[in-house]
Design a protein that fits this description.
The protein is about 75% helix and about 0% strand. With about 70 residues, it is mainly alpha-helical. The longest helix is centred in the middle third of the chain and has 30 residues. The two termini are about 15 Å apart.
Amino acid sequence: MLEKRSRGEANPTDDDKMLKLRNLLNIIFMIGAIIGLVVYFLGHQQMGIIIILFSMVFKMAESTIRFFHKR
């Protein structure tokens, strides 16, 4: 069934682009978090924490996009 769109709403292609970008940011976050955990438990705790914190930047970016990009 077709949905009506009101003015100001994003095009479906914009939604697809945002979804792809969000998925990419989530993948980068997950890979970074896993690498950070491995480094943390292999004995370099400070470096592991830094890697995890850096990967959280990507998660925050994804969350910001999700919060501000209305469907």
